Amino acid sequence: MRVLAESADLALRNLLHLRRTPGLLITCLVEPVVYAMLIGYVFGNSLGGPAYRSYMVAGLLAQTVAFTTTFTTVGLARDLEQGMVDRFRALPVSRVALLLGRTTSDLAACGASVAVTTACGLLMGWRPHTGPFEVAAGVLLALLFSFAMSWIGVFVALVAPNTQVAGSLGLIWLFPATFVSSAFVSGSSLPGPLSTLAAWNPITSLAGALRQLFGNTPPPGFRVQHDWPAQHPALYTSACSVLLIAVFVTLSTWRYHTRTSR
Question: Any idea which UniProt keywords this protein has (predicted)?
Answer without folding.
Answer: Antibiotic resistance, Cell membrane, Membrane, Transmembrane, Transmembrane helix, Transport
